[in-house]
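Schema walkthrough. Field components (list of strings):
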Amino acid sequence: AQTVTQSQPEMSVQEAETVTLSCTYDTSESDYYLFWYKQPPSRQMILVIRQEAYKQQNATENRFSVNFQKAAKSFSLKISDSQLGDAAMYFCAYALPGTASKLTFGTGTRLQVTL
Amino acid sequence: SQTIHQWPATLVQPVGSPLSLECTVEGTSNPNLYWYRQAAGRGLQLLFYSVGIGQISSEVPQNLSASRPQDRQFILSSKKLLLSDSGFYLCAWSSPLSGRAAGEQYFGPGTRLTVT
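Field assembly_structure (string):
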């Protein structure tokens, strides 16, 4: 079974600074997807960024980028120029391609953004 | 554009009472639908998923059941709630396309259920 591990329960970053959230996963598959989801205080899950395992190039979405290390099974999220609105729980997730892409989530990292 | 709705937003129910949570999706056809539960301070656990009307797959044995009576409607039910059923319930949808287009799920606003 696939597992996703987020070893940082909480992180803090100052506004305008950069922070990196860690995620590791365990799988025997070679083709899969990885995601970072954001859950703000409203608790609605919002997709931040997506990475396909067959792509070596790291995904980027504006201030959000990932460092995907397939051999190490590592998938970290870098947030640049942090903003107060980035404060939230961040979840790393894994899915296999298929008709129903079931997500396996990590336990999350709570990010605080300070002035 | 696609929209996903869940109701109610919050619910307080006594132990032993029935439960019905509803999820509907607009703006897409034949979506894959999912129910997740999030316990306090923890990640999401997949409970059920559905790839079509009447097709339900259960991931975790429990006190809950799911049904999909219409293409874009997904219902989570229980005949008798337990204290351990308390949590935050999220519905999600994904594209029915397979292959490289699959993978992303889009979540509803959730229902906070408290069993007393």
